Amino acid sequence: MIEDCRKSAAFRSDSGQFAARELLSHAVTTLGHWNLAASKREIIEIVLAEALNNVVEHAYREEDGHPIRLALTMQNDILKCIITDEGNPIPGGKAPCGTEPVLNVPPAELPEGGFGWFLIHNMAESVHYERLGVGNALTIRFSVV
User: What pLDDT digit, counting tens, does each position of 23-38 carry?
Assistant: First the structure.
């Protein structure tokens, strides 16, 4: 059972090859200290990995040295994760829904990528994107009970 109190943590990294991995490591360690079940931590880790890699690959177009911030807040049975950056906006001004991959094809025809937004939306409780001045904020909520 999750305690009925508010917990928070914040982390920052510069964009680059290991930025997502560094932020994920901090987040997973923190969630472990907060006594989240391993099964919940795994889901959160998958979603955050997809979202953080999107920042590195798309918002910053794989340029090194730009700030990426991850804030975690847990209150009661909800974990809120906010990823902010100063990169390019998401085209269309909202988080894509993603499409369910077609997997009933021969192995040679399986797509290598393109599952990210589908996974994010399907594994999280809610996803909200907004452009704030010169930056992006992606808020992802999870039920942790």
Answer: 999 999 999 999 999 9
Counting beta carbons within 10 angstroms of the beta carbon of residue 83, is it exposed (0 to 12), middle (13 to 18) or buried (19 or more)? buried
58-91: pLDDT as tens digits = 999 999 999 999 999 999 899 999 999 999 999 9
CA dihedral 7, 28, 122, 16 (to 10 degrees): 110
Give the domain CATH number at 91: 3.30.565.10
Q: What is the pLDDT of residue 19?
A: 97
Amino acid occupying residue 76: N
Residue 136 lies in a domain: yes
Q: Residues of 46-71 as b/e, b for ≥16 C-beta within 10 angstroms? A: bbbbbbbebbbebbbeeeeebbbbbb
CA distance 106 to 59: 33
- Are the C-beta atoms of 121 and 91 separated by less than 8 Å? no
